[in-house]
Each structure stands twice: as C-alpha cells, then as structure tokens.
Amino acid sequence: MDSPGKPLIGSLSKAPRTPVTPNFDHALEQYKYDTSPRPYPTRAAMIKHHQHSPRLQRKRKLTAAVEASPAKKSQRISSLDADEILHQQSSKSVRGRKATKDAAETPPPKKLKRPSAGYAPPSKYSYLVNKLTDSLAPNLICLFVGLNPGIRTATTGHAYNHPSNLFWKLLHKSGCTPRLCRAEEDGDMPRLYDLGLTNIVSRPTKDGGELSKAEMDAGVAELEAKVALQTPEAVAIVGKSIWESVWRVRHGANIKRDQFRYGWQEDSERMGTVTGSGDDWPGARVFVATTTSGLAAGMRPHEKEEVWRKLGEWVEQRRRERTDEKERLTE
User: Fold this and answer.
1) What is the DSSP letter of 284?
2) What angle do CA 215, 160, 189 make, to 5 degrees?
3) What does pTM read for this prediction?
4) Euclidean distance between the first and final Cα of the chain, in Å?
5) pLDDT single digits (tens) 16-35
C-alpha cells in the first residue's frame, strides 16, 4: 500500500487500445509506464475537511458548554475526553432505546408471595409436652402477659427461650431488671425482681399466626382471673394482638386504629377488677408493650426500646419505693 504524502514514482495505466496485431512488439505498445505523480489532497484541504466534520462540531459544542458552566470554569475538556463522553452518550442512548423497547414488549414479572402461616389445629403439635409453667406470686410490681409458648419454649420449659426473641434484652435495657437475665431464670423473677410471667394461650405453636382469634379471646377470662387472684400493680401486655383480644372481649368489637396506642392505657381499662365483695380491688394498670418475637418486623429495635423504656422507668421507681418502705419497717 502506498504511503500517504509521498508521490507515486510510477504506475501502470492502460493506454488507448490499438488494433490487435499478431506482431508482439505492437502488442506491448498497448501499455506504457506512467511516471507522473499521483495527485493527493494537500494538508490544508485535509484540515479544512476535518474542521467541518459533524463529529468535530459536536465536540466543540460540548466543550463550549462545559467551559461556560459556572461550576466548571477552571475545567477544560480535551479532545480525547470529548470523544469518550460522546461515545458514552451514544451508548446510553442506544441502550435506553433498547431497554424501553424491551420493557414495552416484556410484561412485568409477577411478585413471589411468601407462604403465610395459617391456623394450625392443636393436633399438629399434640406430640409436644408443654413444660412451661407460669411464674406468679402475689402483689407483684408487674405481670408480663405473652401470647403463647413457642416450640423451643415449650420443650425447654423456660419462657421466651428462642435466641431471636428480644424479651430478656428489652427487659434489661428498659430498666425492668438491673441486669441481663437468662431464660432459665424465669422461675426466679417473682423472688428476685417482683416480676411475673404468663400467657393468654397455653398451647404451643411455631408462631402466633397458627392461633385462632377464638382461642385467644377464650383466654381473656382466665387471664382476668389470674390478675384478680395475684393482684399485681400493673399488667404488661407483650404484643398488640393480645390487647386486641382483650379489647374484643371487653367491648364486643375490634379495636380501631385511632383507639390503639402503645404504653399506659386509660384507667377504665384496668384488669382483674374485683367489685361487689368485701375485698374490692380496683385492678391492675395496663401497659401495652411491643411484641418481642424475632419474627415480627413491624418496628425497629430502637422503636421497641423507646416503648419499653416508659415501662422500665415506672418499674424502677416502684422497686425503689418498695425497698425504701421495707427499710423503714425494719428500723
């Protein structure tokens, strides 16, 4: 291939054809060696042609736009940078048109639904021996009411014993207990810290979704009887669904969204009230706390801690007051 910029020394060009003759010498005269240089465009012509190319004009516009930007007055784009940007913009445009076309032709994928745990009859876990018992004592500071024992809790016989359950951590962080207790210490809670543990439903399940509303509502009357018998100062409902059952039984309807709130409830909602006898009792105050189950993801850990902290502050205060009262009596 000829090198650009160098004239061709010689080239073969076809001369006007002469009549065919048998003479060999005349046949050779049909061709001659052209020694004239091949005409090449001058450098000035090539530069002029390049300056008017559409690609160079686009680069100039892009460079001028960036240089005119107030945020990039000191920045200068080289010819190579402009080439790269133009290439990226062109590629994005092509990909964008292709993606739009594919999106228009392809239907949106269907979302996969997670299998929800429905009601499980008692026969499903009839093989389990529920070893969990209530931790109760008279005149407790607070009685904690859970939903029902899980599989691990039922088999070990210790409350809130699943590793993902936050009950014992929240109990300590809120101030209800001065240290982090273990599930194996559940039976010592009344003696150590004047705290009790029970559930609204006694049969074990994998999670609360396997219980029916009917059996939860049926457990309300038994819970009221326990509270009236043990007379704790307060009852802590560990989970929204438990309070919903208590509300349904008391008011004959589901609780509305604007009627529900975490924390201390109205004084009219006290539990275990005893009237019409010589030993009337006003009942225990009710505090609705968040669920501690690791399967419930409705609230973040710090939001749960904020709710539990309100209960912990009250428990700490009552424990100090009881301690001071005991000291005065022993003096």
Assistant:
1) B
2) 105
3) 0.66
4) 117
5) 555 555 566 666 666 655 56
